[in-house]
Amino acid sequence: MSLFDYFQKVDADKIDGFYKLTKGQIGNQIDLNPSSIEGYDLIFFDIEEERGSIRNQGCSKGANQVRSYFYQLYAGLNPLKMADFGTIKQGESVTDTYFAVTDAIAQMHRNSVIPIFLGGSQDLVYANYMAYAKEEQTVNLVSIDSKFALGRTDDSINDSNYFSKIIMHQPNVLFNHSNLGYQTYLIDQAELHLLEELFFDSHRLGELKADIKVAEPIIRNADFVNFSISSVAQPYAPANKVTSANGLSGEQACQLSRYAGMSDKLSSFGIYDFNPTIYDNGQTANLVAQMIWYFIDGFYNRKGDFPACNKREYLKYTVNLEEGDRELIFYKSPKSDRWWMNVPYHANFMKKYERHLMLPCDYKDYVTATENEIPERWFQTFQKLK
């Protein structure tokens, strides 16, 4: 099936203020009538699907409200090579929608184009994951969410259990999952224990609020990011039926989106759960539009320093640990001052896991190693390879 068969093009007449846009605004920079996938760096679209939502019905109808704010933003200094493909309409069944999303994203990946998309309910993360499974590519997923989606596994897939479905899918191509911003009073401790047993990492909201920079190396290690608006505090994003009084600020949401855009490894970015049926004078739609803007800004400021090919270009630091006669090797990029650490692996794992074994980290991990301790993120990755 042709990629364009999945999409309904944007109707400019339904975008508030579209015909009053000036030359420098995104609405006049983005291509609304693409005839080919070639020539673009980024493709935006929305997915009109919410049948997997348990408590947030109405979340599939907000795309044009977001567009009205997004198109009014100014593109900045970078030439914008981006198209808006429009809407993947709800299929006859949820499975039909999943198929369309999976195939569309897979085609974009094959053409080295990064999709930025707006849900829809969060179970659509499963369809995004299936695009990577279709390519048989092992991946890392980062979920920015106040909760874990490990719900009742015997239920049909929905926004409360989709991550369980990802874990159980065979063949499984998920190498690592990181949650950013979970709130302890919203989760079952048994779920947290399960993620720890799988050597997945989870980071409490308080950790991010204390220092948002801790999220940068985690997101830099992601192939795709799932950003739920429910992770943003209600005062900043009230248009969501399951939002919490606590959560990320609007500024922090934009910073995390920029980290995602800057990641050389990341190849898709999804924002979910904005619900326009809750009137908030456009506040949440405005924030989502700015999050997309920050992702694009990050993308056009990528450093191209993911050290998968030529490590000789990086500063190398070797730390010998006293216990266990172990040697940890760190690399620092002279372009960006960002850090990575090498995780040793058996030769049999090389082809399948090589992309994940130059592990993004920060200077604190290096300091931890110099103090004769193994950094937690190194240990978790190493355990997966035993």
Spell out the key features of this protein.
single chain, Arginase, Chain A, 12 helices
Q: How would you portray this structure in words?
A:
- The chain is of the alpha/beta class.
- It folds into 2 domains: 3-299, Arginase, Chain A; 311-384, no CATH class.
- 30% of the residues lie in helices and 18% in strands.
- The strands form 2 sheets. Strands 1-3-2-4-9-8-5-6-7 form a 9-stranded mixed β-sheet, with helices on both faces.
- The radius of gyration is 21 Å and the shape is globular.
- The model has no long low-confidence stretch (mean pLDDT 93).
Largest sheet descriptor: 9 strands, mixed
Q: Helical amount among residues, as a percent range?
A: 25-40%
The global form is globular
Radius of gyration: 21 Å
Q: What do the pLDDT scores average to?
A: 93
| Largest sheet: spatial strand order | 1-3-2-4-9-8-5-6-7
Number of strands: 13
Q: Look up the CATH topology of the largest domain.
A: Arginase, Chain A
Integer count of domains? 2
CATH class of the largest domain: Alpha Beta
For the record, what is the CATH homologous superfamily label of the largest domain?
Ureohydrolase domain
Structural class: alpha/beta
Question: What is the second-level CATH architecture of the largest domain?
Answer: 3-Layer(aba) Sandwich
How far is the N terminus from the C terminus? 42 Å
Q: H/E series, N to C?
A: EEHEHEHEHEHEHHEHEHEEEHEHH
